[in-house]
Structure formats: C-alpha cells, structure tokens
Design goal:
The protein is α+β, with helices and mostly antiparallel strands and 163 residues long. The chain has 2 domains: 1-31; 33-162, Beta Barrel (Lipocalin). The protein has 1 helix and 11 strands. It is globular, with a radius of gyration of 20 Å.
Length: 163
C-alpha cells in the first residue's frame, strides 16, 4: 500500500513539473517581441542598391528554442517570393527555402532579448547577414542586412517592419 501511494505521488510530481515547464515555455514565447505578423513600411526602409520590394509580410512564430518564419514578398517587378525556415538560436545551419539569392541554409543567434542575427548561406558560404532589432515598445522591427545580390553586387539594406 505504501509503495502505491509513493508511485502515485511521484507520478503527480512528475506531471506537475512537466506542466510547469510547458507553461514557462509558452509564457516565454508569448513575451518574445519578435513573435507576430510584421508588414514592411517601404517608405521608412532603404535599399542599396535597390529597388525596394512592393511589399513584404513576415510571420514569426516561436518554436522550441527558435523560430519559424514565413516571409512573403512582392518584388519591385511584381514577382511573389515566399521564404520559409524553422531554426533554433544556436548558430547551427537549418534548411531555408525560397531564397531569391539561392541560399539553402540559415543560422540564427540571439544577441539579446530584442536583437537577433540571421545568416543565410549558399553552399556553406554566407550570402547575407541580417540583424533584427525590435523597438522597446514592440511595434517596430528594423532589419539591417548586408550581403551580395544575385548579380554579385554588395547590398546594404535597412527594412523597417511594423506590427
């Protein structure tokens, strides 16, 4: 009888620890300022050499120790481009699909609570580095990217997104 009570007590303790861990993870994810849907403010953004896209929408979801991102862009010439990835903030390479630059991998690092760094790679070599910073009020995200475009020319873009 004593061993049954002990087993039941142990099972309940394990159950509550698992539930508490899940709640803590969900709470942390809900406080992540990057999570949500972001729309590009073309007028506030700068694209060098340009031209800027007509529009872009980012959907960022917290997943495990990282994020799932879907980026839908209408390019300057009207083409629709969808880029997707799911990756952890651990600096390791994860699959990336849809890149106009031909990138096939992405790696992520968290710099601080509001800043992340993303590196898109093609054949193991970086083609663009993007530093994203969410404003203190959580309403604006600025993505500064440096890399090389499809023509091999350097790019230096500042994209301003709003929730």
């Amino acid at each position: 009888m004593h061993s049954i009570r002990r087993a039941v007590t142990l099972a309940l303790v394990v159950f509550f620890v698992i539930v508490a861990a899940d709640v803590a993870q969900l709470s942390a994810q809900s406080k992540d300022p990057r999570v949500g849907t972001w729309k590009l403010n073309v007028a506030k953004s700068k694209y060098d050499p340009g031209p800027p896209p007509q529009s872009q929408t980012l959907k960022v979801d917290a997943v495990g120790k990282g994020e799932k991102v879907t980026s839908e862009t209408v390019t300057a010439d009207g083409k629709k481009v969808t880029v997707t990835y799911t990756a952890n903030f651990d600096g390791k390479d994860y699959p990336l699909t849809g890149s106009a630059l031909g990138a096939d991998k992405v790696s992520l690092k968290r710099i601080d609570a509001r800043t992340t760094e993303r590196i898109d790679k093609k054949d193991g070599k970086p083609v663009v580095t993007i530093r994203r910073v969410v404003s203190a009020d959580g309403k604006t995200m600025t993505a500064t990217s440096k890399g090389t475009n499809a023509e091999g020319k350097p790019t230096n873009n500042v994209a301003v997104f709003e929730k």
